Amino acid sequence: MKISMICYTLTGQQTGEKLKTGLEKEGHAVSLSTKSKYIPGSIKGSCVEWTGSQFETADSIIFIGAAGIAVRSIAPYVQNKKKDPAVLVVDECGTFVISLLSGHLGGANELAHRAADILHAIPVVTTATDLEGKFAVDVFAKKNNCQIFRMKEAKEVSAALLAGEKVGFYSEFPWEGELPKGMIWCRKKQYPESDYVKMSGQKANDERHLLFEETDKTSFSGMRFETVDGGPLPAVGIAVTIHKSCHPFSSTTHVVPPSVVLGMGCRKNKELSAVEKAAFGCLEENDVYKEAIAALASIDVKKEEPGLLALAEKLGVPFITFSSKELLAVEGDFTPSSFVSKTVGVDNVCERSAVKAIESFLAKKVGFKTDMLAEVRHDERESQKADTSHKDTGTYFIQRKHGAEGVTTALALGEWRMHFE
Description:
alpha/beta; 6-stranded mixed beta sheet
C-alpha cells in the first residue's frame, strides 16, 4: 500500500517518523511530508494542492494534525467510496487515530487500527457496522478480491442488519465459513437437487459447500429464489455473481469475482473499434460484468497487436500470451480451424488461450482454488452441456469460439471460492 503522510509541527514530525517506521516494517511504501516554516524541506505549495496530488497517486493519506485541516484539504477531491483513498487523522501527539474517509473499501478503518497499534494510540472508528460488530458487504467484497456494484443497495444491506432484519445471500460460487448473524442462504427455487455436487471432504449434509450454480444468463429469466431453510425470502440481499441480470431480491447488491478470462484472436493490425466491438459484444451477449474479467489472453504472435493491447488497457487487466506449443499442450475439446492451424500452428487460439490463462494466471489470484479443479465436478452440467465444459481443468466455457469481422472471442470461467471470516 502506498501511504502519504503530512505533518505541521515538530511534535507531529516525531509522531510521523514513528508511524512511518512502523508501517514500513509491515511492507508499506510510506512518504512523510511537512508543511511548516520551522521545518526544513517543507512543501512549497498549499496543503490543498498537496492533497490533490495524493488523491491521484496514493492508496492512503494520513494527516498528522487538526481534523479541520484534513477536512478542508480533502473537500475539493472527495468523490465516492469506490474511488476515494483511505484518509486518517492523527493528532500530533499520537494519542488518537481517526478513520475519516473510505473506512471500508479504502481500508481506512483497518489502517486506523494498525496505526493505533504502532503508536499505542486509541483508534477512532465511527462506521455503524464496525461499532455494532455487524457484517459489512463492502469489506466482504474487498477481502475476497471482488468488485461491488449497486452501492445504494449495499447501504440497504447495512441498514437492514443494523435494524435486525434478515438479509439474503445467494452465490453462483462455492463459499466457506459461517454466514454472519442476520444473513440467510438462498438459492434458485427450481434448481434440481441432482444439479448440486458436494465439495470433496465436506459433510454430506452440509449444503453450504456445493459447487456454484449454472451461470447461463438465460437461467435468470423468470427465475425464482428461495431460502434454504424454507423461510420467507428477504427483500434485501447480496448476490455473488458475474451477471448483471442476477436479482434474487427486490434490493440486490452485486459482489463480482474476477473469475473470467476473455480469450481472443484477430487478424494482424485489426482496428481497435472492431476488437472492442467483439469483446464488449461478447460480454453484453452473455450478461457478464466487464469487471469479472481477470485477464485477456491470446497467442504470443499477437503480443504486440495494437488493438488487443489497447483493449487490455481499457479493461484494466493483464494481456497474457502463450506460444503455439503451450496452447497445443492444453487438454480438452476445442473448436478447430484448419486456417488458424496453418497460420499460427495451433487449431484454436481464443478457447485454448482462455483455458491456459485460467490454469497459469487465475489460479494464483486470491479466491481461486487450484485443488478445486481436480476435486469438484458438476455431473449434470457435464452430461447435458458437454460442448461447454472443459472436464480436465474444471473450466467452464461461458461462450465457445465466436468469430465476426476478423476477430474471435471466447469466455472461460474458472472456479472461485468465497470466504466468510
